Inverse folding.
C-alpha cells in the first residue's frame, strides 16, 4: 500500500511541522537506513555508544550543543519528561508546572503518579507566565507534599511565549527543586544552553524542531541526576531501566543525525526568524487579527484571534471548515481544520515570499466574505 | 551529514533484521512521509483515529489480524509490555515470566516496580519452557505477593522456541492471572491469533517482524483490560495516559502500514519458512554445528553451538573476530562480531540460493582453518 501525502508541496505554516522538515541529507538517510534495526548493525549493547553509524560521536556533540553533562536519545520529548518524572516520583509528591504547559507534561505527571500544581499566567491577551509565581506556588505546594520537580515550557506551544528561564530556575533552586525545561519548540530553532541557564534537565523534539523524522527526542541532564534517571538494571547491568534498555533505534535517529550540521547552523540565524515573525505579525495586525502572547513576540509560533473568520463561519455552508478549505484551495497547509475564532501559525523557515502568499490569502478571504462580516445596511 | 550503510547489499541473516526489511512500498512511504509530524496533518486528537493517512482503518485491520478487541500503536514491543505492567502494577506484586524472556521484559518489570519470578526451561540443549511450570511458579509466588501478570515469550529470541501458548494461558487463567504474549518474533512472520489463544495481551514489533522501519510496536488486548491500560487522562479526557497521549506518529507507522498487505500474505507462507529453516539446520549439523533449542525447530531463529570456531579463535590473530571478518569478506552480515562459541542466525525471507552461499562460507572457513581445529600430528 502506498499513500500519497497530498499537502507535501503546499506552503506549510503548521506550528507542529515547520521545524521538522527534513534536510536533503536526512531524506537520503531515510532510505539508506530504513530497514528495521539497521542502526543496530554493530551495536554492542547501548544505542548512545554505537560507533557505526556514528551515534556515539553525535550524542557527544549533542551534549555540547545543549550544554549538558549527559545526553540520551528518547522516543520523544514527552517520553523524556516521563522518564525524569518517573525517576523522581514519590508518594504524594508534586510537580510544579507553568500554566502554558503542553498536555503531555500533565500526562507524564499523571502517568508517574505525581500531583500537578500550576503557576498562573497573566491571562488574555499575553498569557505571560509569572516567573515569580514559581516561588509562590512551590511555597504553597510544599505544605501538601514534597515538590520533586518544576517544569518550564520554553516556549509553550499555545502562544510561543519565552519566559525568563534563568529567573525561574534560580527561584526553584532556592527551594531545592530541580527544573526541567521543555524545549520542544526551541532546541533546534534557537540556542538553548541548559548549563548556562543552570537547568537540571532539558528535553527537545527531533520531529518538532530538529529537522528530523519522528518520533524522536533528546534528553539532557546534569551529571548528578544521571545516577537517578539513568540508573542501570539490577539484572542487566549495562541497560538503563528508565529507557527500557534502548529507545529510538531507527530512521528517526538517522535523520536527526543527518540534519544536525544544518540545525547547528540554523540556530545562529534565529534572530532573523524572530524578525520575520514580527514582520508577519505586523501585517496580520494591519488586517485586524490580534496576536495573543508576548508583544513584541520572540518566537515564530504565533497565535491570532480572528473574530472576523468566526463571524463568517456562522454564515457559510462549510461552517468552521471554510477557512481550512479556502487555504487548501490556495495550497496552504497548517491551520487546523475547523478553527476560526483563533488559530496558530508558524513562520519558521518559511521564506518571506511564501509568507506573502499566505498574507495575500487571508486578505482575499476577508474580501470574499466581507459581506458576511459587516452585514449590508 | 550522510552516512552510508555498508552492509546494505550484503546477505543478511541477522535475527534482528530479517523480518524488518522494508517492502518497496514502505521505502517510498519513508520519503513521502519523512517530515516530522506529517502523519499528524489531519489528526483530531488521537493517532489511532486519523483518517488521512488511513491510520484508523489500518488499526482496525490490525485488530482483526491479531484477533484482539482493541489495538494500539506503541513505540515498540518493550513499550507495550511496560504500558501493560505499569497499568497492572501494585505494591509488592509480581510478574511471572518464562526464563527465555527478552531482557526488555525484565526491564519493563523493573521500571514498573514489579518483582519477577521465572518459569524454568529444560536447560541445554533444547531450553524448552516447561509449560506446566507456570502453574507451579504462580502457586509459589502467590505466597509472597499478588501475581498481576504472566509473560510468555513466543518465541524467545535466544533459541526461537515456541512453547504451547494455549496451555500456558489456560494454566495462568486458572489462577486468575492475565497473560501477555511477547510476539516480537512472531507477529508478522507467522499467524498469531490472540483471541484464539485466549491471550489477554499481545505485543508485536514492527521493525523486528513486520517489514517496518523502527522503532514501532503493536499492542493488542481484550476489551476488559482496555479500561485499565488505556485509561484516559483526568484532565485531558481524550488522551490515553499510558501512551502519554500519542506514540509512534511518524515514518515508522507509515512503513508499518505500507508493508501490511505484504505481511498479511507472508504469514500464510510460514510453513515454507519453517521447512527452509529445518533444511538449513540439517546442513549445519552435517558440518558439525549443534542446534540449540527445539528439535525439530519451529522457527527461523536458529542458535548453533560452534566449538570448532571457538577453537580457531584461540589460535588466530583476530581472536573472536575472525568469524565476523571472514563473513564480511564474503558480504554476509548478521553474526554478532566477536562471537564464536555459539551464534544466532535467521533464515527468514532469505532465499535458499543465498543460504547456500552462507553454508558454503561456513564450509570454506572450516576448511581454511582446519589445521587449527585438529592440530597436525
Amino acid at each position: 500500500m502506498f499513500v500519497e501525502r497530498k499537502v507535501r508541496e503546499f506552503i506549510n505554516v503548521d506550528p507542529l511541522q515547520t521545524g521538522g522538515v527534513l534536510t536533503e541529507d536526512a531524506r537520503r538517510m531515510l532510505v539508506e537506513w530504513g530497514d528495521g534495526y539497521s542502526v543496530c548493525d554493530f551495536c554492542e549493547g547501548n544505542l548512545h555508544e554505537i560507533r557505526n553509524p556514528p551515534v556515539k560521536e553525535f550524542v557527544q556533540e549533542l551534549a555540547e550543543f545543549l550544554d549538558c553533562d549527559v545526553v540520551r536519545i528518547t522516543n520523544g520529548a514527552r517520553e523524556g519528561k516521563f522518564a525524569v518524572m518517573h525517576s523522581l516520583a514519590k508518594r504524594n509528591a508534586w510537580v510544579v508546572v507553568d500554566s502554558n504547559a503542553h498536555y503531555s507534561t500533565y500526562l507524564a505527571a499523571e502517568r508517574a503518579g505525581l500531583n500537578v500544581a500550576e503557576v498562573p499566567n497573566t491571562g488574555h491577551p499575553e498569557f505571560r507566565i509569572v516567573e515569580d509565581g514559581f516561588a509562590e506556588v512551590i511555597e504553597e505546594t510544599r505544605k501538601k507534599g514534597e515538590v520533586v520537580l518544576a517544569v518550564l515550557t520554553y516556549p509553550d506551544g499555545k502562544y510561543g511565549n519565552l519566559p525568563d528561564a534563568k529567573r525561574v530556575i534560580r527561584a526553584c533552586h532556592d527551594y531545592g527543586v530541580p527544573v526541567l525545561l521543555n524545549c520542544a519548540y526551541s532546541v533546534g530553532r534557537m540556542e538553548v544552553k541548559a548549563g548556562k541557564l543552570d537547568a537540571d534537565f532539558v528535553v527537545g523534539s527531533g520531529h518538532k524542531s530538529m529537522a528530523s523524522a519522528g518520533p524522536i527526542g533528546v534528553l539532557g541532564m546534569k551529571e548528578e541526576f544521571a545516577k537517578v534517571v539513568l540508573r542501570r538494571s539490577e539484572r542487566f547491568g549495562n541497560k538503563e531501566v528508565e529507557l527500557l534498555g534502548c529507545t529510538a533505534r531507527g530512521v528517526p535517529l538517522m535523520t536527526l543525525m543527518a540534519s544536525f550540521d544544518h540545525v547547528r547552523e540554523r540556530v545562529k540565524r534565529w534572530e532573523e526568524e524572530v524578525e520575520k515573525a514580527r514582520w508577519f505579525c505586523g501585517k496580520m495586525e494591519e488586517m485586524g487579527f490580534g496576536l495573543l502572547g508576548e508583544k513584541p513576540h520572540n518566537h515564530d509560533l504565533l497565535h491570532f484571534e480572528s473574530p472576523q473568520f468566526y463571524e463568517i463561519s456562522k454564515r457559510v455552508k462549510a461552517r468552521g471548515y471554510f477557512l481550512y478549505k479556502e487555504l487548501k484551495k490556495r495550497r496552504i497547509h497548517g491551520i487546523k481544520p475547523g478553527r476560526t475564532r483563533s488559530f496558530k501559525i508558524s513562520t519558521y523557515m518559511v521564506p518571506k515570499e511564501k509568507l506573502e502568499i499566505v498574507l495575500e490569502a487571508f486578505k482575499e478571504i476577508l474580501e470574499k466574505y466581507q459581506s458576511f462580516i459587516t452585514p449590508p445596511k
Remarks:
- The domain at 24-258 of chain B is CATH 3.40.640.10 (Aspartate Aminotransferase; domain 2).
